[in-house]
Amino acid sequence: MPEGDSVLQLSNRLQWMAGRTVRHTDIRVPRFATLNFDGEKVHRVWPYGKHLFMHIGQRVIHTHLKMEGVWAIHRAGQRWRRPGHTARIVLRFSPQHAGGPEIEIVGHSLGFVRVFRFEDYPQVVAHLGPDILAEDWTVSGRDEAIARIMQRPERPLGAALLDQKNVAGIGNEYRAEVMFLVGMHPKVTVGKVGEGGVQKAIDLARRVMWDNRLEPHRVFTGDRRPGQGTWVFGRAGKACRRCGTAIQQATLGGPSAGGDPDVDAAELERIIWWCSQCQGE
After folding, report:
1. Domain with residues 137-275, CATH architecture
2. What is the CATH architecture assignment of 4-124?
3. Quick one: which of 41, 46, 5, 1 has its CA closest to 169?
4. What percent of the chain is modeled with pLDDT above 70?
5. Where is the FPG-type domain (predicted)?
6. Neighbouring C-alpha atoms within 13 Å toward the C-beta of 71
7. Catalytic annotation on 270?
8. Domain map of the chain by residue range?
9. HSE on the CB side for 269, CA within 13 Å?
């Protein structure tokens, strides 16, 4: 499930693009199908929350994976591992060394594709909260995220954490696990836990996401064995690893769930999991 750490890892895998020249462009999104990046150089690739940006020439390719999107990397001419009809962007790049192979990247089933001028970047991300995986998080991001969440004390904290306008990068798995680890029900309101509770949740979210940012599989329990890494996420009906109580499942959504207006439905509804003993009702 792509969350901020997944996009950071994707960005890390694409850093080889910097300095390369685009040899072939194929954007299979009607609005941008006529755009061409051939002959232009890649300046930078970077993540912001769940979003990925590629600065090529004077423009930026902006994508979001949503639930099913992937980027495939292979030598040009190799058979794709996914169906061709799922491709949304195809970019082929110059070899790293003279005589070397051209490398191709294919964005399959991307949930969101946009191209804009590089100078418009601040405006494009203006609606997003601070990136929870930013290097300077403690300097400028942390306090801003807490302040944004505190502006709506009537809102469920679980919904506020998932709202990318408050803090960018937290997804449903991290929301579920963080709420368990801080001992709060996902539906508890911001006003009830107060600034101290919000700070506790935000600080823990940053810590577990930072610790997992380079890991191939997320781990919240400290147990890296398959199927043992989460406390509540996806474990409805199973025994709580801490107290043995059956894990509960419901939904949290509607207008209070917020979300990113560019990529999420207006009334976002997601599954929540919790332990009634460890987190209350």
Report:
1. Orthogonal Bundle (1.10)
2. Alpha-Beta Barrel (3.20)
3. 5
4. 94
5. 231-280
6. 26
7. yes
8. 4-124, 137-275
9. 4
Backbone angles phi, psi at 27, to 5 degrees: -105, 115
Q: What is the mean pLDDT of residues 260-269?
A: 56
Q: Does 153 participate in catalysis according to the annotation?
A: no
Question: Is residue 50 annotated as part of the catalytic site, yes or no?
Answer: yes
Do 121 and 53 touch, CB atoms closer than 8 A? yes
The span from the CA of 159 to the CA of 75, in Å, is 42
pLDDT at position 173 over 60: yes
- pTM of the predicted model as reported, rounded to 2 decimal places: 0.93
Round to whole Å and give the CA distance between 124 and 168. 13
**Single-letter amino acid code for the residue at 1:** M
**Cα 272 to Cα 171: distance, rounded to the nearest angstrom:** 11
Residue in 135, 161, 130 with CA at minimum distance from that of residue 272? 161
Considering the candidates 50, 59, 206, 218, report the single residue annotated as catalytic.
Answer: 50
- The single-letter code of the amino acid at 45 is V
List Cα–Cα distances, 124 to 12, 51, 78, 260, in angstroms. Answer: 22, 11, 35, 12
Buried b or exposed e, range 4-21, using 16+ CB within 10 angstroms: bbbbbbbbeebeebeebb
Strand (E) or helix (H) holding 11: helix 4-13
